[in-house]
Amino acid sequence: xxxxxxxxxxxxxxxxxxxxxxxxxxxxxxxxxxxxxxxxxxxxxxxxxxxxxxxxxxxxxxxxxxxxxxxxxxxxxxxxxxxxxxxxxxxxxxxxxxxxxxxxxxxxxxxxxxxxxxxxxxxxxxxxxxxxxxxxxxxxxxxxxxxxxxxxxxxxxxxxxxxxxxxxxxxxxxxxxxxxxxxxxxxxxxxxxxxxxxxxxxxxxxxxxxxxxxxxxxxxxxxxxxxxxxxxxxxxxxxxxxxxxxxx
Amino acid sequence: xxxxxxxxxxxxxxxxxxxxxxxxxxxxxxxxxxxxxxxxxxxxxxxxxxxxxxxxxxxxxxxxxxxxxxxxxxxxxxxxxxxxxxxxxxxxxxxxxxxxxxxxxxxxxxxxxxxxxxxxxxxxxxxxxxxxxxxxxxxxxxxxxxxxxxxxxxxxxxxxxxxxxxxxxxxxxxxxxxxxxxxxxxxxxxxxxxxxxxxxxxxxxxxxxxxxxxxxxxxxxxxxxxxxxxxxxxxxxxxxxxxxxxxx
Lengths: 248, 248
Prior knowledge:
Strand content of chain A: under 5%
Largest sheet of chain A: none
Domain Cytochrome b561 (chains A, B): 13-223
CATH architecture of chain A: Up-down Bundle
Structural class of chain A: mainly alpha
GO molecular function, one term (chains A, B): metal ion binding
Pfam families (chains A, B): Cytochrom_B561 (PF03188)
Oligomer: homodimer
Subunit structure (chains A, B): Homodimer.
Cofactor (chains A, B): heme b
């Protein structure tokens, strides 16, 4: 099979998993958890999983693989850089609104914030993401940033980008797990506990599996050097010509 | 600073984090959770975090970066391959014993197995690890395995290796989070709940942070192409010469 067909097979699988993750988390929050509001109630909390999964995982992962799409090659990189930055900014905004949803909910219910390991990992992922976005803008988009700095920081940007996605996935998995233990306690009305795997648990566990599968597809696309945008292949002199053109 | 010094700085940080993770999980299980036994009690469960963190994260991560140590370069690769396989086998055995500890504990207490998302992710990580180890042995160690197959499957082995580490970290974070909600409920004797962040919660949350930091150092070492064993750099003709020498 031609390499471009293999790439697009994986890329389309990533897009399909993106849609599946967003649909799954929306169905969980709306059908099983009662829907949405912004009034400090549990319905406000329901925005939290939807916005974190959509922003910190799905949009983030799609933004990360943008340069691998062959359609974006052989052209001026600047518009694609702007799209990468815009997708990541949207992902960051959704994540921050997702954090506001849970902080507001906790404050309205006098629940302490930031005590669980889930919250520590989630806040670390979002904080690193914010730093990464600002540093990325300053180093890779501002024309005054010197080429030597871009070459120096590109591997750090790539490594930090992958690490943030890993942290986001760990935060989502621990968050879904925690929420299911909170809400599926079982009672005398015949509601089943988490350990009896009622339909809601199967749906939310499956959401976790979809998130992990999506992350694996993103890492697969990122790890294949043949799918790197040609200007950033090591043998192409560390993308200097294009950066020179852009920084002029 | 010379590249080799930068490498060893990160490598030693990875080793220091390895020791910190193992010490931290042992202190948590022994000092705060009452120690160890193999009798179906909660003391048997205590082996579970110790063995999973030590096997599936610490030994696994150290096995993954072995080829990056410059000390192993410029020599026949076979002894280092055997050490890589041996470290990974030890990691796999510890992980499987760690799973036995929790299955036995559940069975003795009539608790269902494999219902939580934590357990789904953990069992997937261990199963993929077992498949990866057997496939690695068959493809990269058995002399009868053809060079074309090795070249074809090396990127898959590397991608799957990183994915398994990400899954392991997600499983550990969700497991520590879940355990703390189970055991730190607070009571009238003055025991503080998880949301009051008692010392045990700070210790176990810190264990989670150490695991994430260790994973990030491993990914940093793996992501730097300059630190790749020279025979596997793409410009060195996909490590064919050494594989030919080994398969003779």
